[in-house]
Design goal:
By secondary structure, the chain is an alpha/beta fold. 37% of the residues lie in helices and 18% in strands. The chain is built from five helices and five strands; from the N terminus they run βααβαβαββα. A five-stranded parallel sheet has the order 2-1-3-4-5, sandwiched between helices. The longest helix is centred in the C-terminal third of the chain and has 18 residues. It is globular. 35% of the residues are buried. Bound molecules: 1,3,4-trihydroxy-5-OXO-cyclohexanecarboxylic acid. The site of 1,3,4-trihydroxy-5-OXO-cyclohexanecarboxylic acid has 10 residues, from loops.
């Protein structure tokens, strides 16, 4: 099992960026947590971060035939990137959308996710644990598909 974890704009600043909202754990801590979780699940994970929409789309295209599951936090692109939505729909790989914060109890514009419609589900408000939950879900789903 190989999982691709995609993080969008500004997530590289985790730990520094609005810690009251996104937590004080660093981006490096998130990468380590994802890698530890994948290992415990008997899987591999690649973690990718970009501040550029096109790079995120290219990475999703390149995931076809390589990765079995995608975890994506599109950052602010969540709220308006139809191009990322289309990319998620174009690749035939189950994806889970994750947000560190609860996007439903913040500003109005954050309540809408245009990208979640290209995912099997969405997890938000659980901080970095949301990535762990998403990976566990994908591993369980793949195991039951295989069995
Ligand atoms: C976020 C929520 C988005 O609204 C915001 O633009 C982010 C992070 C989250 O993880 O809570 O960059 O995706």
């Amino acid at each position: 099992m190989k999982f691709l974890v995609v993080n969008g704009p500004n997530l590289n600043l985790l730990g520094h960026r609005e810690p009251g909202i996104y937590g004080s754990d660093s981006y490096e801590a998130l990468v380590r947590r994802v890698e530890t979780t994948a290992k415990a699940l008997g899987a591999e994970a690649e973690v990718f971060q970009s501040n550029h929409e096109g790079e995120i789309i290219d990475k999703l295209h390149g995931a076809m035939g390589v990765f079995d599951g995608v975890v994506i936090n599109p950052g602010a692109y969540t709220h308006y990137s139809y191009a990322i939505l289309d990319a998620l729909r174009a690749i035939d790989i189950p994806a889970v959308e994750v947000h560190l914060s609860n996007i439903h109890n913040r500003e109005e514009f954050r309540k809408t996710s245009v990208t979640a419609a290209g995912c099997v589900g969405q997890i938000c408000g659980l901080g970095q644990f949301g990535y762990v939950a998403a990976l566990e879900y994908l591993a369980e789903r793949l195991k039951s598909d295989a069995g």
